[in-house]
Amino acid sequence: MYPAVTREILKKVRQVELRTRRLVTDALAGEYHSVFKGRGMDFDEVREYSPGDEVRLIDWNVTARTGTPFIKKLREERELTILLAVDVSASGKFGSQVQSKRELAAEVASVLAFSAIRNRDKVGLLLFTDEIEQYIPPTKGRTHVLRVIREVLFHTPQRRGTDVASALEFVNDVLRRRAVVFVISDFIESPEAFERLRRQLRLTNKRHDLVLLHLRDRHEEELPAIGLLTLEDPETGEVMEIDTDSRGVRNSFAILAKDRMEQFRRAARQAGVDTLELRTGEPYNQALYTFFKNRSSRRL
């Protein structure tokens, strides 16, 4: 018999699996396949030339030997390596809706992982705060994906802060071959960190196919008017008391949040990295599908 805690963990992982596997429809998995291509094309076989075939595919050696035009048939080297780099810093515990950002991260990671194994790709996991917390090398299979979900949900971080740039440096060190890297984070860092982040985003995007999934919560960007409120920065432990009935306080809070958002968007834009913003408590499957579809169209 499993202990009660273990049973609860297994139940939660199973719930996430059932919920997210339903979302990995043929449409979503198909768009995933379209937008994330394999590493190249491999030779398959030759066949006789037919009107309309591309001349550049003619196999001149076989053509000269037989006296009949033949072309090369190619097939995509499909297998990809997917790495899910998930921020497990203390700010991920926050959620003013029905789920925390950490829970949203687990569901999105699950959807991406099941899409990957449905296309026979490998999936790896990197959990980070302001240090590397855990790395699980890429491999295949449902059992492996269930472990990924469990670790995102229940890993106990040793640190509280966030350092996305250091996580990307680790990615570049550990992945020798080109991979698709999804960074799942709220990207809440100090203003001084964004210039270093921009440089690392640009470097990683040259080596890999990099996508940023930006997790947001409405009440981290706008305060409700509910009187005196004690706030604690989950990553620094700093505590302050504010009067949310004050319009000035609410406006200042919103301005700071907007500035942080613009810094992140500017860093990603200057590095040429695609981003997708997802909010706690809101459906994300259509947003992922649309993102994949738009990204695929741009790359045609």
Protein model, in words:
- By secondary structure, the chain is an alpha/beta fold.
- It has 2 domains: 4-30 and 79-298, Rossmann fold, CATH 3.40.50.410; 42-75, no CATH class.
- Helices cover 44% and strands 23% of the residues.
- It contains 9 helices and 10 strands.
- It has helices spanning 4-23, 26-35, 60-66, 101-118, 142-154, 164-174, 193-207, 247-271, 285-298; strands at 40-48, 70-77, 81-87, 122-128, 132-139, 180-185, 209-216, 228-232, 239-243, 274-279.
- It has a 6-stranded mixed beta sheet, with helices on both faces. A two-stranded antiparallel ribbon has the order 1-2.
- Strand 4 and strand 5 (132-139) form a beta hairpin.
- Helix 2 (26-35) runs parallel beside helix 9 (285-298) and helix 6 (164-174) runs parallel beside helix 7 (193-207).
- Mean pLDDT is 86; it is low at 39-43.
Shape: elongated
The main pleated sheet reads as:
6 strands, mixed
Under CATH, the topology of the largest domain can be stated as: Rossmann fold
CATH class annotation of the largest domain: Alpha Beta
**Helix content class:** 40-55%
Uncertain parts:
39-43
Strand arrangement, largest sheet?
5-4-3-6-7-10
Mean pLDDT: 86
Structural class, from secondary structure content? Answer: alpha/beta
CATH architecture of the largest domain: 3-Layer(aba) Sandwich
What is the ordering of alpha helices and beta strands? HHEHEEHEEHHEHEEEHEH
Number of domains: 2
